[in-house]
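Service request form, structural biology core

Requester: graduate student, group of Dr. S.
Request type: structure prediction, single chain
Budget code: on file
Notes: please return the result as structure tokens.

Sequence provided:
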Amino acid sequence: MAAPSARRDGGSASLWAALLLAAVALRPARAVSEPTTVAFDVRPGGVVHSFSQSVGPGDKYTCAFTYASQGGTNEKWQMSLGTSEDHQHFTCTIWRPQGKSYLYFTQFKAEVRGAEIEYGMAYSKAAFERESDVPLKSEEFEVTKTAVSHRPGAFKAELSKLVIVAKAARSEL
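Core staff response, request fulfilled:
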């Protein structure tokens, strides 16, 4: 994600924006709808595969996981989707419940539709039993407004979990 930039011509506007962001960050967390969790197979073979699910009123939000991997056999993964009570925020978590994946990922991309990403993270190892999540190094992946994806040449082929928190896309009137 790009770092916020400061504008010198709008001092009071910048202060107002900072205060608004602080108020939003400090408000109590909104209730989240019961997440929908769906199991799917991550298949090796070097071919690009995709899996997607939608959630929210009228399937307002979609999360799609596209990847290619090598080695081993199919692995059971899960995708969990949830929305805030007011349906303005959406979460998508994609992970291997057994922790570390033994597949060699040549590429990955988790993409959202109907929302813009506020937070995205990728992990080489998912929490399992007494072990914690292990995040990828920041240079191995990138986060844009709509996707979390590998960085070609920097990604070290280990992936076990992706987490996205997104906010409803603004609609122009």
